[in-house]
Amino acid sequence: MAEKYQILARKYRPQQFCDVVAQEAAVVTLKNAIRFEKLAHAYLFCGSRGVGKTTLARLFAKALNCQSLGPDQEPCNTCPSCREIVAGQSLDVIEIDGASNRGIDDIRQINETVGYAPSHGKYKIYIIDEVHMLTKEAFNALLKTLEEPPEQAKFFFATTEPHKVLPTIISRCQRFDLARIPSSLTVQKLQQIATDLSRPVDRDALELIASFSEGSLRDAESLFDQILCFSDQTITNAIVRQTLGLVPAELFTQLDQAFADYRLSFAFELVEQLFQTGKDLAHFLEQLVEHYRHLTMARTLNTPHPTAALYTQQQCLHILDLLIQAEPNFQKSPFPRITLESLLLQIIRTKHRIPIETLIRTLTENPPPPVPTTQEPSNTPTSPPAELKEVSFTPFKPPEEPTHPPTPSPKTTEATAPLSKHSSHYDTLVRFATVELEGTLTSMQKKSLTAKG
């Protein structure tokens, strides 16, 4: 009879503390608590999905009830207690789903049975997953038991939203905040699984899976399981993108080149291609944000990137800010295709956008040429301007040019006349600065009104 298939997330779940990924602080603390016999009666494991909250709770339960505990406080996984816990059949380790057993009656059943002696092990352990889902009445019913629990009873809580747990519950627990799994460690774990299964995998494919899982090792293992079913060939970056429905990386390279060439028509060509291939436009926008995030990091940290040289740091920052502001309202748009086309056009037009810092610096370094006049300078000192009570920005209005050109001074010759830029050059720069400032102020006003609202 063929062996029953087991998903990767369960097959490769850590069975010893040394197998836990990226949670060294919690592991060391729990093992030392066993070694020095300084056990609390309640523990709270917090963190995002797939980082090892329930896994640590089970490992700790196995170690506490293990009949042949190793010298390094590792459970043996061979004694009857360990085997029952692994199989989920232990009478001493009771796992409860807080989402489906959240009422006061469910907690009353715990309070009524918590005083019973354990059947095989040293402790009777209750593992409550997603404990934040318990009702306020259920929490209050649990308080008395947590405050004065029987000596042989232990409570292990796991939650993704610790802020929803009552402070009176948290104050009675030892709390562990588990970090997200770094991408490098996720790649390393997936490579170990691939080696064990004798499946060839490209490293950039594993890096893409790790990036897509957002710090959740369980999510990464589940995605890898799906991809292994998709193809029996070498797992490449292209296969991963095809399986997950991601846009091919070549499209982003083409967008970067269209930006460099200032080819506005590519915005329409790209959206048409996405539309014809059935890609989710909102999902593409998320990938676009991630693409320009990598470009911004490459320009800021001087890290290698194939197309980062096509952009300046200011252009990357502006485009990234543009995308972040557009993403929240994209789902609400009645015309997502036109909205995306407009956004891509703005990205390509950023190629010739002059940063406001450059405009101000240019205006500062190139003051306007002096206006020639035939009148003698007055010796009367000019009175200082009154203190400005309010600063307002108005569009620049160029000065009127004289009807007749001024008569040059007889003392000034063509050879000794100072060279200066034509006034129209300065006027053009000021007009650009005025438009830029007006747009900046309008954006600031909108943000201010949104914050007040």
Features:
about 450 residues, mainly alpha, about 50% helix, Helicase, Ruva Protein, domain 3, Zinc Finger, Delta Prime, domain 3, 5-stranded parallel beta sheet
- What's the average pLDDT? 82
Q: Regarding CATH, which class of the largest domain?
A: Alpha Beta
Q: Which stretches are poorly predicted, pLDDT < 50 over at least 5 residues?
A: 385-396, 407-421
Q: How many separate helices?
A: 18
Spatial separation of the terminal alpha carbons: 66 Å
Instruction: Give the radius of gyration.
Output: 34 Å
- Biggest sheet strand order reads 2-3-4-1-5
Find the count of extended strands (DSSP E, 2+ residues): 5
Structural class: mainly alpha
Number of domains: 3
CATH topology term of the largest domain: Rossmann fold
CATH superfamily of the largest domain: P-loop containing nucleotide triphosphate hydrolases
Strand content: 5-15%
CATH architecture grouping of the largest domain: 3-Layer(aba) Sandwich
The shape, in one word, is elongated
The largest β sheet comes out as: 5 strands, parallel
Written account of the structure:
This protein has 453 residues and is mainly alpha-helical. The chain has 3 domains: 8-177, Rossmann fold, CATH 3.40.50; 183-244, Helicase, Ruva Protein, domain 3 (Orthogonal Bundle); 249-351, Up-down Bundle (Zinc Finger, Delta Prime, domain 3), CATH 1.20.272.10. Helices cover 51% and strands 6% of the residues. The chain is built from 18 helices and 5 strands. The protein has helices spanning 8-11, 24-35, 53-65, 80-87, 104-113, 136-147, 167-170, 183-197, 203-213, 217-230, 237-244, 249-261, 265-276, 281-301, 313-330, 336-349, 356-365, 423-452, and strands spanning 42-46, 93-97, 124-129, 153-159, 174-177. A 5-stranded parallel β-sheet has the order 2-3-4-1-5, covered by helices on one side. β2 (93-97), α5 (104-113) and β3 (124-129) form a beta-alpha-beta unit. α9 (203-213) packs parallel to α11. The longest helix is centred in the last third of the chain and has 30 residues, at 423-452. The two termini are 66 Å apart. Mean pLDDT is 82; it is low at 385-396 and 407-421.
